[in-house]
Specification:
Layout (H helix, E strand, L loop, with lengths): L8 E7 L5 H12 L6 H16 L14 E3 L8 E8 L6 H5 L3 E9 L1 E3 L8 E4 L7 H8 L4 E5 L8 E2 L2 E2 H7 L10 E14 L15 H10 L46 H8 L7 H9 L7 H19 L3 E8 L5 H11 L4 E11 L2 E2 L5 E2 H5 L2 H19 L6
Parallel strand pairs: 1-14, 3-12
Antiparallel strand pairs: 1-3, 2-3, 4-11, 4-12, 5-6, 7-10, 8-9, 10-11, 12-13
Length: 401
């Protein structure tokens, strides 16, 4: 009778958004524990533990035996993409993946800074962004390539005096000392896509930090003085969608406190400000004809109003950029977005993050889709088995250690 095959090793799964890396492991265990594929591994593990207990004088209370899993580098709940998973003896090799290079695609949204450096935090400050273009951002990207120094975010799992940094942040406490910059390497960094205002779905968070939170965070995060403000342009009658009032900078009461007032008003909006009374029907037609625009009825009026609203939305919505980068261990994409925002004379937060590659695991090539786990063992088991077998073959004798 042949010995049942024990499968173990390393594979990768495509982590979805809004769940933690630890939750992914729990979901995998929930699927693996009762499966036929991992039944031989669990049987072997029970046998091993039973033998060890025979030689133990003080036997510990029996714990439920589950498929042993670990991951090779956490992804924030906001992030998606390649999450490397070790199974059984494969967990001993996960350290190798912590030290390898990784490739990311990240979206930075300009004009605001948050305590977490991403869209899930609270707004600390807003800044002008009307001057930003793809060329301006590309020029600043050069400063972040090669061997650089980077300061990790306050909301990170790094420890200081035995306590994680995010624990200080959540408690609203000052950290014992300054977060030190660390050496990292950026092998490549480029803009994949420039996203002008209103051409994308990304928005700032609605919640702003209160006075105590803001004071602590601004000191720790080295926000420095607010960007120098230019003369505010005329007010637009419409408040931009998703806009929130900034409390980071005191302003004169005779000016609007909304940072979006820094955005230049479109020519169409300026023409409307000349005539304070609303222009309807024929009056709008006359105004348009004065500008050399023909109008024949109410449908044209609706279209003109729609066009004006769209122009305002473009000006009122901050631009974003999709970046592609290959980096070494210890690199924080959130820190890059924060630092890049300041480097271009504005502020920036990470709105989206996808890890497209880690070591030899690449999305859409040799990574298990998370949805397959929910489809049942008939779907996920053949794929996981094949991936673990391939890893065993590639790593030879090292895989069995």
């Amino acid at each position: 009778m042949s010995t049942p095959k024990i499968v173990e090793g390393v594979f990768a799964i495509n982590k979805p958004k809004s769940i933690s890396s630890a939750q992914v492991l729990r979901d995998l265990q929930h699927a693996f524990n009762p499966s036929k594929l991992f039944a031989p591994w669990l049987h072997a593990e029970r046998t091993r533990i039973s033998r060890e207990r025979e030689h133990q004088r003080n036997r510990r209370r029996h714990k439920r035996i589950e498929v042993k899993l670990g991951h090779g580098g956490t992804l924030d709940p906001l992030a998606t993409g390649v999450l490397i998973v070790g199974v059984g003896k494969g967990t001993k090799h996960l350290q190798n993946f912590l030290n390898c290079t990784k490739t990311y695609e990240a979206t930075i949204l300009f004009g605001a800074a948050t305590d977490t450096y991403d869209v899930e935090g609270k707004i600390l400050r807003k800044a002008p962004y009307a001057h930003l273009t793809r060329e301006v951002v590309e020029e600043s990207l050069r400063k972040f390539q090669g061997d650089i120094k980077q300061r990790p975010p306050l909301y990170s799992a790094l420890r200081m005096d035995g306590k994680r940094l995010y624990e200080y942040a959540r408690e609203g406490k000052e950290i014992p000392r300054e977060i030190q910059e660390r050496a990292v390497t950026v092998e490549s960094l480029a803009i994949c896509e420039w996203l002008p205002g209103s051409s994308h779905p990304y928005r700032w968070p609605n919640e702003e930090a209160d006075g105590l939170e803001k004071g602590v965070a601004e000191r720790v995060l080295h926000l420095g003085a607010p960007p120098e403000e230019k003369e505010d342009p005329p007010q637009s009658a419409d408040k931009p969608p998703h806009a929130t009032e900034s409390h980071g900078t005191k302003r004169r009461r005779d000016n609007d406190a909304d940072d979006d007032a820094l955005i230049s008003t479109s020519p169409a909006a300026k023409r409307q400000e000349i005539s304070p009374a609303p222009l309807m029907s024929g009056a709008l037609q006359e105004a348009l004809q004065m500008d050399g625009v023909e109008s024949s009825g109410s449908n044209d009026t609706t279209e003109a109003n729609k066009a004006t609203s769209e122009e305002r939305a473009v000006k009122a919505t901050p631009p974003a950029a999709r970046l592609s980068m290959t980096v070494t261990s210890g690199f924080y994409v959130r820190s890059l977005c924060h630092d890049l925002g300041q480097a271009v004379g504005s502020l920036g937060i990470m709105s989206e993050l996808v890890r497209t590659r880690q070591a030899d695991f690449k999305l859409n090539e040799n990574v298990l889709e998370y949805e397959d786990i929910r489809k049942g063992e008939d779907v996920w088991a053949p794929k996981v088995e094949r991936m673990l077998d391939e890893w065993q073959e590639q790593n030879g004798s090292e895989a069995g250690r």
